[in-house]
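Q: I have 217 residues here and want to know how they pack in 3D. Can you give me a structure?
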Amino acid sequence: MVYPTSIDDLAIGGRRFGAVEALAADMKAVHSAYGHPIDGTLGHSFLAGKLVLIDYPARTITIFDRESEVGPQLSKCRKAWRMRLRSFQGDTVPIVELRIGSARLPVGIDTGANDNVELFKKALDEPTVKAALVEAGTTKATGNRGVYTMKINQLNAPISLGPFALPAGQTVTLSSNEGAAETRLANVGNKLLASMRVKLLLDYRENRIAFFGDCAN
């Protein structure tokens, strides 16, 4: 159950954003999963019209109003992968292409997930993906809807997002979601993006998404 409400004066990191619409919900399951208090989730309605930079190597998130403010943060990055920010009808999750071996899968970039890759059932219709999976047990995951069990597999194939690649041996989980090639066949979580050491830019003003890497200090 969630309840509509509002926040009169939202501030993040000392920056004030004024009044915002909100939903009140029970966050106990998420608290338990992370091991420390989680007081809320920033949703698409708040981020719309803003630029969000998630710097995984530095473990920081910065919210900008203008593209000119982002440039100095990325000017020393030698790798970049840019595209239109797209999703499928009825959703707002950014969809990009993930390569597993020779297979190319549409996947959602899920910055609310703390795992590597969550493969949906239809992803196993790709022979390359199915052949690369080696069972490695199960794990429990927690989301806003509670605790659920997922199968863990080791992936004996390299994995990449554009020019950002990791060798074979990454762990993936298998979801009970069906998925579809027309929408998405997997979700990519924060753990994979952190392993790739990327800076993720979500530009909700111009509907663009970009990944940056190999950035000098």
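Q: Anything worth noting?
A: The radius of gyration is 18 Å. The first strand starts at residue 2 and ends at 12.
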